Amino acid sequence: MEELQIEKLEDVILNLKLISKIKQNDKMIVVNKVIQVDHRLFQPLFRWYTSDNRSETFNFITLIINKGIENLSSEKKEDVIYSKDFIKKELLNCLEGLENLGATYKNDILISSKIDLLKDKIKKICNFENKNKNEYSNNSKKKGND
Question: Whole-prediction pTM value?
Answer without folding.
Answer: 0.76
